[in-house]
Specification:
This is Integral membrane protein. By secondary structure, the protein is mainly alpha-helical. Helix content is about 55%, strand content about 5%.
Amino acid sequence: MKKAQERSGTGGRDARSGTALELLVHGVGGTTPTEMLDDPRTVRITGDHVAAVFRRTEDADAESRPEDYRGRPVPEAYVWCNLTSGNGTRALWLLLLPFMVVNIAHWMRPAAHGRIRTVRLYGLLLRLAGLTLTVLLVAAACEVALDLVAWQCAGTRACAERHSWLGFLSPALSEGGWWSTPGRRLALAAAVPAALTGLLWYLSLRTWRAYESQQPMDREADSEDDPRRAALSRPGFWYGRRLVARLRAAHTAAGLLTVAVGVAAPAARFDRRPGGPAPLDTLGWALLGAMAAGAVTVAAVVCRRGRSERLIDRTLDEHLVRRLPLAALLLLVLALLYGGWSRPDWTSDGRLSGNTAFGGIALVQGLLVVALAVVAHLLHRSRPDVRAAIRGLGGPAVAMLACALGGVMSGGVAQRVADWMDGTGTSLDGPPVLLTWQASVIPPLLVVVLLMCAALALHTLRLARAERDAVEGDHPGEAGDPGRTRRIALARAMATLTDRAPLLVAITSAATLLLGAGALVGALTTGEVPGEAARGTYAVVQGAAQTAQDLGSWLIGLGFILFVTWGRRAYKDASARRTIGVLWDVGTFWPRAAHPFAPPCYAERAVPDLTWRMATWTRATGGRLVISGHSQGSVLAAAASWQLEPSARRRVALLTYGSPLERLYGRWFPAHFGPDALASLHEEVDCWRNLYRRTDPIGGPVRLPGDAGPAVDRAPLKDPLTYGRTELHPLPAPILGHSDYQADPVFAEERGRLLARLRPGLPAPRHTGGAAATVPAADGTAGDC
């Protein structure tokens, strides 16, 4: 604030001058300040290389020349794309995709008032589901390093001969070398999953410091007596340091304990054989008991109350954050010593107990998803929302997909490593049977998805044919062009596919749950891969099982290869990294509340940035500010507006275009962007106008309840701007869809109306009783607000 006053001479003169600010916020995929400000000469006025506010060079000292900006605003551009698509390390975030998806599911709970315990149970179930994903990832690393490499391949002469780097671990090739005993091989291989756990801990800590350590502005908590008060207006919403640190400690401990069990359990089973050494048997039981106590402690930490949002929570559970991972690390060291103890008669044969481990994880995940669906249904039924995705079951459906994604990634890694290690396909037993069953359900699941896509494509074509009459009706008196009409109608029809995404997600999730349950039952009851389990049945059944097994193995391998290739290309190619950045733009908007190893929340940096910029401007100038957000930028603009002091919030006008606020966020995240929340934002800012096109697959109307809707949403913009060739447009105008809203004259018109409404000093009167206030437009006409 002081710097702003120094640049302008005096704060009072700025307030009297009426200088206005237009703060532009870009959407997904990012852009450059040059493109946003339409000027090749730009200068950074605040911020750093990650996220910053830019102006045109000629506007850098606008505050000192208020007379030059009497009839126009000072344009500024907030550029945040480097938060999600900066350097090459962002490509590594692809490995964290299941964690990101389950974290998104946490924020999809239905809106409910007065159901505090049920809401907390919803969050608890998601945190437990996130914990199972961490255990699944580390268990997959254990399966590869401990079972396939150290136990099976190093213990088999033929496999060890094909991989000479395993010679010192092979009892046959090393002639009984020190590392050749099974326990020591497992202890050495445990370095891989332990290092993976340590890497996840380090990345979570490092990204938190880089992205999420920006403290919001200090302000008093808003009153929560009003049930329509948006949760995003709470002072501590964008600062979840305590929870993330607590979950990070718990998940790190869970990963280390998983590795410890993977090393100690085979040794303990060997020691429990008749005639085994009693001291080692006792030590094994004690060590496994300590690990069980550690697992209970981890679960208890995860089950503790989640986020504290009413106040900025700067406290930290230092003893828990430090001691829990250290205790788990100590147990891992003891497990390594115990497993590596000399056992001359111990040999490795068959598989480790991966089938039981992966089966238990899959069973727990399925039960958590079912329980989550019940809780979500109860919340939705208490306050039904007809626009909520999948009738409030969006969270459970997405959580199911997160678990399935984790299973596919785990199975893909294990299957590819097994194929690589066992070149002949005969010397190793391979990965657990359950992973093969899970791979075998991929083909039928793809059939379901393809049938759904075909049905949607057919429906889209029918809708496109029906839209042709509407397109011609929008352009009366113009010569018809059948080809042009078909393209416009098809663009409108394809834009509606976004509204049918909940149906596709619901069917895919339900099919995944049923097929996954069938795979679990088949693996545990038969103990054989699908092709062998179906042997002796009807020929068609046996053929289908063998085909699904072979095709599933091929598909999961292909998916793994494409996954690695995509990540490698993104690491080296900035354009590919920007494409992946679009995924992070949408998926990492929400704070890490269910999983601490998810990619970092860029909004915990972007929202405080925008809040500070808007607050300092309104204080220094008396308040003439229009925050203009496109696509995902409109979501950031709304979140930042909620974070302002109520008095400053009333001095801000909001202009959104191509906005997914209601169409995507309102439907999928009804507790935070539902009708009550958006209506509250509309009442609290000075004015809000929203622009959209029928050809836009992302943006849409805000659809506020009651009489407030028309005051926000303008009628759909024309797209294309002209149907045929005209004097002003001699060449065919493009179909813009989601882009180039500022090219439409309506954009400048609406911005002019907002600026005309805003006045220095006190904000304009709000409308009351649901009636929209009439304000002068830039051209002298009347506009709604």
